[in-house]
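Here we describe the complex-level prediction in full. Unlike the single-chain runs in Section 2.1, the two entities below were treated as one system.
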Amino acid sequence: MEQLTNLVISDRELAIISTVLNKLMNDTNATSVMLIDKSGQVIATQGTGVRRNATSLGALLAGAFSSSRHIAELLGEKDFRTIFQQGVHENIYTTMVEEQWLLVIVFDKLTHIGLVKVLSKKASDEMGRILERVRADTSRTKSSVINVQFRSSVEDTIDLLFRD
Amino acid sequence: MALINIASHEIHCKIVYYGIGYCGKTTNLQYVFRSINPSARGEMLSIATETERTLFFDFLPLDLGTVHGFRTRFHLYTVPGQILYERTRFAVLNGADGIVFVADSQAEKFEENVQSISELEMNMRRIGKELGNFPFIIQWNKRDVPSALPVSVLERYLNRRRVPSFEAIAFEGKGVFATLRAISKNVMAQL
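The structure predicted for the assembly as a whole is:
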């Protein structure tokens, strides 16, 4: 399976993603919800609980998910599409969106896992449709951002920042 | 896979340091962490064993600040080098935009380097990418060690594609930023 080279998310799609995440958070009474790419990059977050550590959480959750898929392979299982991490106070439920994104729901003991499972399935289907549009739009929107001026400025910044 | 978020004006790229156990991948990241302007870096995460060997990965987020209105970020990862963690290395490669192969210059590590680079080629093919047309550079690390092979020998056997390569003594910081500059520019050029 070939991996994408890049993915461009427009204002419009991000607004829709945020609405879906917000609805999921409210309906499940979760403390936070996140959408991350399977490479570990955070696309959007809702809720206050994870914001400060979002970057680290993205990397770790994507790593844990990727590792669990390899565990599935070793067991002869096609794949594990969800992971549930249970703590004393906080729990995390992670589910895959179309082999590309991960939908993460952080919730406490006031929320039942059954509700999270059902509602995250619905949200994940919706995210799948958004992803399809994002994929189709990527090359068109990319050229508006990545132009000659951008490339030259970024090279200057790299020289300035990554120096001995 | 680079992520360009137009709404939040952010660009994220993932760079993976690959290579055999004890070749200096983590040392590269640690040096960057220590030396770079603190405002340009986030917290460094290491998932290591009790003996400080990398178990899963090291992770260091770098923030280039705002470039043409876009906040540009590089996320640096290392893979665990030990042979038995092959599947973990594959997992970390997921979504990479650029790869640095850190080669241990010591003569006694030559064969392991050869195996590791061919494993990397195979893993890239498994995710549908060819190293030949992917942002990829090599670092010849541990140039200070007495048993270090001449660079010409390393180039001949380990750099068949003639990708850019850099000599380094990572624990002293020599060559660390030159490597990082090269791979970052390479990644941006192919964005």
